[in-house]
Amino acid sequence: MSVIDEGSGPVVVLLHAFPVNRHLWDGVVPGLVAAGFRVIAPDYAGLGDSPLPAEPPSVAAMAAQIRQVLTERGVDRFRLAGLSMGGYAAMQLVREIGPRIEGLALIDTKMAADTPPARDNRLAVATRAEVEGSAEFLVAAMLDNLLGPITRAERLDVVVQVERWIADAPPAAVAWAQRAMASRPDSTVDLAGFEGPALVLAGADDTISPPDEQRQIAATVPQAQLTLIPGVGHLSAVEDSAAVTDALLSWLR
Ligand code: MLT
Q1: Residue 1: its pLDDT value, please?
Q2: 191 near 150, Cβ under 8 Å?
Q3: Across the chain, which distance is largest between two alpha carbons, in Å?
Q4: In 3D, which of 137, 113, 119 has the Cα closest to residue 19?
Q5: How far is CA 173 from CA 98, 105, 107, 112, 152, in A?
Q6: Is 38:69 a contact under the CB 8 Å cutoff?
Q7: What is the DSSP string of 35-69?
Q8: To test the ligand 1 pocket, which listed residue (44, 181, 217) has its Cβ within 8 A of the most ligand atoms?
Q9: Atom of ligand 1 lying closest to residue 16 CA
Q10: Number of neighbours of residue 24 by Cβ within 10 angstroms
Q11: Are 180 and 61 in contact (CB under 8 A)?
Q12: pLDDT digits over 177-186, tens only?
């Protein structure tokens, strides 16, 4: 598996979104490492350079890949941050190994399961990726929702980078991850039972996981604090990596 593993100190695990890869965190890792953390950010779910899981699609199979990375690297207890799909995988890890998670940051994500129309849409996307043998169509389908309006207007470098990540996503992984997300359970009860320190962080212009949803998550997790980053959409870690780094650091400390 391809994994960013940098720094030394308490471990912070960063889980990327769909349909991107570990490099989503490239602007965040240096600040965390400089502040004395060991940062582990794996590719998973067949995205980036990770292998396609052999198991049928599920968030449990995502979590199994991530747990394997932690086992191989001798990590027992850790802080965990997941962005969007990374949040879904993080919620699965809370279900499975919650006591090992010393802090939980949920970034631009959702705790509810999909509605039936959202599930149907995912299954259609999965089939289309397989039929076309390419994730290229997702650039037009997703870009306007993944990036906030200010980023789209003013940050051509970010737009080009995200377009490239999406277009290069392996179609089999796109299909697998969509089916896994479609089958994920509601996580409200699991999050209500997470007693450790928690951060709910999102772009204020996120339309996939909007601020109202973030307020609900923050009201559910007992020790959660909420931070919304102005002028930023769904992929906050790449749209304003400095603000995400600052928010994570002030919470981690
Ligand atoms: C993501 O950013 O990981 C996706 O938008 C998540 C989703 O499709 O629910």
Answers
A1: 53
A2: no
A3: 47
A4: 137
A5: 27, 25, 22, 23, 26
A6: no
A7: TT-EEEEE--TT-TTPPPPSSPS-HHHHHHHHHHH
A8: 181
A9: 3
A10: 25
A11: yes
A12: 999 999 999 9
